[in-house]
C-alpha cells in the first residue's frame, strides 16, 4: 500500500507542477496565492486518470516559451517545503481511498466465495453451529501469532453462546505445517473433540509436524497407523487446495487471517477488537457501524 501511496503522491506533485506552469504562463500575476495553490493541491490529491479528465486549454507557444522546469521546480519545492502539512493531508486522503478500494474488492470477492468459505465440508466448526455471527480463522500450526490468539478465540467460543467459529487449515510456513494440517483434517472428520486436538497442538513445544499431530490424535483415541495411511489421500489434498484457492482470491498470504462479515483481517487481532466486531455485526450487520448502518 505504501508503494501505491508514494506513486500517487508523485503523480499529484507532477500534476501540481503542470497546473502551476499553466497558471504562471497565463496569469498576469507573478505567482499564485497560498489559497490558490492549496485548492490545486486538493484537486490533484484525488485526481482521476488522465483519460477521464476534461481537456485543459493549452497556452500559446509564445506564452510557454519562457516556462521550463528550471523555473517551475523551485517554485513547487519552495511551496511544499513551506507547507509540508499539505503532503501529509494528501497522503492520508490517498491512503483512505486505497483502503476503501481494497475493502470494496474484498466485499465483492467474499460475496462470490460465500459458499466455499462457510459451507466447505472440511470446515471445523466450534461453538454454536447455528450462531448469529460467524468468525472464520485461517491458521498454520507453526505460526507463532496463531499461537498467541488461540486462547482468545477459544475464550470467545466459551463466553458467547451465539458465536460460530470456523477454523480453516491454511499451512503455508513449512512442509511440517502441511503434514500436520493433513492429520488435522482427518481428526476433524472423526468423532473426537477437535478443540482438544487444536489446543493440544498449539500448546506443544517445538515444531508441529506429522509426529506431533499423530501423538495428539492418538491421545484422543484415534489410530496413529490409520491416520498416517490416510493423510495423503486425494480428498485430504483437495480440502487443502480449496483453502489455498480462497486465500489466493482474497489476497491472503499470512496467518492468522480472520474473516468476519465483509471484512478480511490479517494478523493477530486482540480479543477486544474481535469482540467489538462481533458486537457490531449483531448491531448493524457490519464490522463497523455507521449512522446509516444503524438506521438500516
Task: Write a structural description.
With 296 residues, the protein is α+β, with helices and mostly antiparallel strands. It folds into two domains: 2-107, no CATH class; 114-295, 3-Layer(aba) Sandwich (Glutaredoxin), CATH 3.40.30. The protein is 61% helix and 9% strand. It contains 14 helices and five strands. A five-stranded mixed β-sheet has the order 1-3-2-4-5, with helices on both faces. Helix 1 (2-26) packs across helix 5 (85-112) and helix 8 packs parallel to helix 10. It is elongated and about 80 Å long. It starts with a helix and ends with a helix. 26% of the residues are buried.
Short description:
By secondary structure, this protein is an alpha+beta fold.
Largest β sheet strand count, sense and barrel closure: 5 strands, mixed
Task: Kindly identify the CATH topology of the largest domain.
Answer: Glutaredoxin
The top-level CATH class of the largest domain is Alpha Beta
What's the name of the CATH homologous superfamily of the largest domain?
A: Glutaredoxin
CA radius of gyration is 27 Å
Q: Structural class of the secondary elements?
A: alpha+beta
Shape by Cα distribution: elongated
Give the uncertain stretches in residue-range form. 19-30, 44-48, 292-296
Query: Helical region count?
Result: 14
Share of residues in helices: 55-70%
Record the SSE blueprint.
Elements: H1 2-26, H2 34-45, H3 61-64, H4 69-82, H5 85-112, H6 114-118, E1 124-127, E2 133-139, H7 144-159, E3 163-169, H8 175-189, H9 194-203, H10 210-219, H11 224-230, H12 234-250, E4 257-260, E5 263-266, H13 271-284, H14 291-295
Parallel strand pairs: 2-3
Antiparallel strand pairs: 1-3, 2-4, 4-5
Helix pairs in contact: 1-2, 1-5, 2-5, 7-9, 8-10, 8-12
Amino acid at each position: 500500500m505504501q508503494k501505491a501511496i508514494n506513486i500517487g503522491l508523485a503523480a499529484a506533485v507532477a500534476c501540481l507542477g503542470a497546473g502551476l506552469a499553466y497558471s504562471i504562463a497565463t496569469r498576469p500575476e507573478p505567482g499564485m496565492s497560498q489559497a490558490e495553490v492549496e485548492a490545486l493541491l486538493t484537486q490533484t490529491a484525488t485526481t482521476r486518470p488522465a483519460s477521464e479528465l476534461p481537456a485543459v486549454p493549452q497556452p500559446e507557444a509564445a506564452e510557454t516559451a519562457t516556462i521550463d522546469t528550471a523555473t517551475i521546480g523551485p517554485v513547487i519545492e519552495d511551496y511544499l517545503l513551506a507547507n509540508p502539512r499539505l503532503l501529509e493531508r494528501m497522503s492520508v486522503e490517498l491512503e483512505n481511498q486505497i483502503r476503501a478500494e481494497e475493502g470494496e474488492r474484498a466485499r465483492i470477492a467474499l460475496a462470490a466465495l460465500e459458499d466455499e468459505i462457510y459451507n466447505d465440508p472440511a470446515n471445523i466448526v466450534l461453538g454454536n453451529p447455528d450462531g448469529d455471527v460467524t468468525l472464520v480463522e485461517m491458521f498454520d500450526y507453526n505460526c507463532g501469532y496463531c499461537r498467541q490468539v488461540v486462547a482468545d478465540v477459544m475464550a470467545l467460543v466459551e463466553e458467547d453462546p451465539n458465536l460460530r467459529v470456523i477454523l480453516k487449515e491454511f499451512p503455508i510456513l513449512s512442509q511440517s505445517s502441511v503434514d500436520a494440517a493433513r492429520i488435522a483434517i482427518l481428526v476433524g472428520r472423526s468423532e473426537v473433540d477437535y478443540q482438544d486436538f487444536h489446543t493440544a497442538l498449539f500448546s506443544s513445544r517445538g515444531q508441529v509436524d506429522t509426529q506431533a499431530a499423530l501423538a495428539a490424535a492418538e491421545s484422543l483415541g484415534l489410530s496413529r497407523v490409520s491416520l498416517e495411511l490416510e493423510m495423503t489421500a486425494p480428498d485430504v489434498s483437495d480440502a487443502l487446495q480449496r483453502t489455498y484457492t480462497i486465500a489466493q482470491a482474497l489476497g491472503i498470504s499470512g496467518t492468522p487471517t480472520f474473516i468476519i462479515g465483509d471484512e478480511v483481517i490479517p494478523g493477530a487481532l486482540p480479543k477486544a477488537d474481535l469482540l467489538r466486531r462481533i458486537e457490531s455485526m449483531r448491531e448493524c450487520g457490519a464490522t463497523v457501524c455507521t449512522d446509516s448502518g444503524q438506521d438500516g
